[in-house]
UniProtKB/TrEMBL annotation:
Family: Belongs to the GPI family.
Record's keyword annotation contains Transport: no
Substrates-to-products reaction catalysed: alpha-D-glucose 6-phosphate = beta-D-fructose 6-phosphate
Highest taxon of source: Bacteria
Enzyme Commission number: 5.3.1.9
GO molecular-function terms, A-Z: glucose-6-phosphate isomerase activity
Gene name tied to this protein: pgi
Record-given protein name: Glucose-6-phosphate isomerase
Catalytic center residues: E357 (proton donor), H388, K503
Localization per Swiss-Prot or TrEMBL: Cytoplasm
Organism: Anaerostipes amylophilus
Main location: cytoplasm
C-alpha cells in the first residue's frame, strides 16, 4: 500500500539538501576522470538508446540518497498502482491509463465491465482497418478518387504530440517507403492557420480529422466550421471528408456529420494521448498502421524498464531523480531539451505541454499548498541551431540551466557529403559532444568576457537512428520522467485546472460580458 507524502516530509530529502553543490562537475569531468565517468555513468534505454548522465552533478553519494528518496517516496510502487488502475488523477477522480494503450504491464483494468486494454486495442484496430481501406482505395472521395492528404484539426494535446511524432518520422517514412499520405495540422484559431493549410492542399482529395477529447474546445470547433465552409464552397459534402477522434461522452460522438468516429476515454490525458486515437488515426493514415504499432512497441519497451526499482537500471526514474536534485536542491528553475536532430524540431514544444501542464502545480494532490518548488520551465530547440540562438546565456549567463541533449549517430535520409574530411552528420555529432564538454569544463581566460566558468550540467540520450521504435522509447522516457517527478512532488500530474480561467474570460469577451480591465482590453481590439 502506498502513502502520499509531501517531498519536505521525507528524511531522504533532508539528506539530499545537505548535498547541495556536492559535485564540482568541472573538476569531475576534467582529464581522464571525465572519460571514466562517460563510460560509467550510462544506463541502457529501450530501442538501442542510452541515457548518459556523466556530466550531471552527481556521484555515488548523491545517487545513493536519490535511491533512498525513490524508495521512501515509493515511486515505482506508485507507478505500479497507476498501471494497475488506481485513481491517480485525484483532481478529476480518474484512472491514468496511457501506458495500458501501448502494452499491459500489470493486472487487467476493468471499468464498468469493460476491459480497458481491449478497448484501446479495438480502437487501434479500427484506425488500422480504416487506414488500410483508404490506402487501398476502398474508401474514396465522392468522385471515386483516392484520398492523398489527411489534416488533423486539434490543439494542445490533440495537436502537439501527433504533430511532433509526424514531423519526427516524415523523412524516415519517405526514405523507407512508408509515406502513405501527406499530413497537415490546423490548431490555432488564427484564421491564417487554417487558410494557409487549405490553400496548400487539394481539399477534394483530403480527409479532415476533428480531434477533441472534450468536444468543446473553441479553437477546434471553430476550425471545424472553417474547414466545412471551405468544403461546401468547393462543392463537396463535408460529411464525406470529416472524421472525428473524441471521447465517447463528447458532443462530437453523437453527431452523424462524420465519415467515421474513433474514440478515446477519460483515462488518457490530452498531453499523453498520442497513443490513443488522437495520434493513432493520423499516424496510421500517414505512415500505415504498422508504423504506429512500432511506435507503441518502442514506448512499451521503455515502460518496462521504468518498473525496475534499481535506479541505476531505470533510466526514466534516474533522469527524474536527478531533475529533482537540480530543481529542489541546486535551485535551477529551468531545463532545456536540445535534440541534435532536425526531425525532432517540435519535440521540445510537445514536452513543454507534457511537463509544464503536468507538474506546473503549487498545491499537492490533496489541494494543500506545497512549500517547495515543483515543475521546471521547459524550453528547447534542435541543435546545432540553438547554438546560434540562446547558447550564449547557457554558457555565460548568470543562471545555470541543466541541459538534456538528444543525439543520433546516423541521419534518417542517408544523403550526406564529405566536406573538409567529415560528413554533415559527423559535424552534427561533433557539435553535441563538444557542447557537453564546453558546458561542463568551460575554459579559463584572464579576459573575463571570454571566460567560460563551466560547471554546467547536462545529460544526453544517444541512439543509432531516429526510427518509430526509438522515437516511441524517447517519448515514453520523458512521459515517465514527468510522472515520477510528479510523484516526488506529491502533485496531481494528470489534471489541468490552470488552463480553464483564460478560456472563460475569452468567452466573456466574445459575449461582450466584460468590465474593468477585461473590457478595456477588449476595447483596444474593438471587439
Ligand atoms: O482535446 P481537447 O478536449 O480539445 O483539449 C485540447 C487541450 O485543451 C486544453 O487546453 C488542455 O490544456 C489540454 O490538455 C488539451 O489537450
Amino acid at each position: 500500500m502506498v502513502t502520499w507524502n509531501n517531498l519536505d516530509t521525507l528524511k531522504s530529502y533532508d539528506k539530499l539538501k545537505e548535498l547541495k553543490g556536492h559535485v564540482d562537475i568541472k573538476e569531475a569531468m576534467a582529464g581522464e576522470n571525465g572519460a571514466k565517468r562517460v563510460a560509467e555513468y550510462t544506463v541502457p534505454m529501450a530501442s538501442g538508446l542510452n541515457f548518459n548522465y556523466a556530466a550531471k552533478q552527481v556521484d555515488d553519494e548523491v545517487l545513493n540518497v536519490l535511491a533512498e528518496l525513490a524508495e521512501e517516496q515509493q515511486l515505482v510502487d506508485k507507478f505500479e498502482e497507476l498501471y494497475n488502475g488506481a485513481v491517480i488523477n485525484t483532481g478529476e477522480q480518474r484512472l491514468v491509463l496511457h501506458h495500458l494503450a501501448r502494452r499491459q504491464l500489470g493486472k487487467d483494468v476493468i471499468v464498468d465491465g469493460v476491459n480497458k486494454r481491449d478497448f484501446y486495442v479495438e480502437q487501434q484496430k479500427k484506425a488500422a482497418d480504416f487506414a488500410n481501406k483508404v490506402h487501398a482505395g476502398e474508401i474514396t472521395n465522392e468522385a471515386g478518387e483516392k484520398f492523398t492528404t489527411v489534416v488533423q484539426i486539434g490543439i494542445g494535446g490533440s495537436d502537439l504530440g501527433p504533430r511532433a511524432l509526424y514531423i519526427a518520422l516524415e523523412n524516415w517514412a519517405k526514405t523507407n517507403g512508408f509515406d502513405k499520405m501527406e499530413a497537415k495540422f490546423i490548431s490555432n484559431v488564427d484564421p491564417d492557420d487554417a487558410a494557409a493549410v487549405l490553400n496548400s492542399i487539394d481539399v477534394s482529395r483530403s480527409l479532415f480529422i476533428v480531434v477533441s477529447k472534450s468536444g468543446t474546445t473553441l479553437e477546434t470547433l471553430t476550425n471545424e466550421a472553417f474547414v466545412k465552409d471551405a468544403l461546401v464552397k468547393a462543392g463537396l459534402n463535408p460529411s464525406k471528408h470529416m472524421l472525428t477522434a473524441t471521447s465517447e461522452t463528447s458532443p462530437l460522438a453523437k453527431s452523424d456529420d462524420y465519415l467515421e468516429a474513433f474514440f478515446m476515454d477519460d483515462f488518457i490525458g490530452g498531453r499523453y494521448s498520442s497513443v490513443s486515437a488522437v495520434g493513432g488515426v493520423i499516424l496510421s493514415l500517414a505512415f500505415g498502421p504498422e508504423i504506429f504499432a512500432r511506435i507503441l512497441n518502442g514506448m512499451a519497451d521503455e515502460d518496462k524498464l521504468a518498473t525496475n526499482k534499481n535506479i541505476k537500471e531505470n533510466p526514466d526514474l534516474l533522469d527524474a531523480l536527478i531533475g529533482v536534485y537540480e530543481r529542489n536542491v541546486q535551485g535551477y528553475p529551468e531545463t532545456a531539451v536540445l535534440p541534435y536532430s532536425q526531425a525532432l524540431s517540435r519535440f521540445p514544444a510537445h514536452l513543454q505541454q507534457c511537463d509544464m501542464e503536468s507538474n506546473g502545480k503549487s498545491v499537492n494532490r490533496f489541494g494543500e499548498r506545497v512549500n517547495y518548488v515543483t515543475g521546471p520551465i521547459i524550453f528547447g530547440e534542435p541543435g546545432t541551431n540553438g547554438q546560434h540562438s540562446f547558447y550564449q546565456l547557457l554558457h555565460q549567463g548568470t543562471d545555470i540551466v541543466p541541459l538534456q541533449f538528444v543525439g543520433f549517430k546516423d541521419s534518417q535520409i542517408g544523403t550526406d557529403v564529405v566536406i573538409e574530411g567529415s560528413t554533415s552528420q559527423k559535424k552534427l555529432c561533433a557539435n553535441v559532444a563538444a557542447q557537453i564538454v564546453a558546458f561542463a569544463c568551460g575554459k579559463d581566460d584572464e579576459n573575463k568576457n571570454k571566460n567560460f566558468e563551466g560547471g554546467r550540467p547536462s545529460s544526453i540520450i544517444i541512439g543509432d537512428q531516429l526510427t518509430p521504435e526509438s522515437l516511441g522509447s524517447l517519448l515514453a522516457h520523458f512521459e515517465n520522467k514527468i510522472m515520477f517527478q510528479g510523484f516526488v512532488w506529491n502533485v496531481n500530474s494528470f489534471d489541468q485546472e490552470g488552463v480553464q480561467l483564460g478560456k472563460l474570460l475569452a468567452k466573456r469577451v466574445l459575449a461582450h460580458d466584460t468590465d474593468g480591465a477585461l473590457k478595456a482590453y477588449s476595447d483596444l481590439f474593438e471587439i
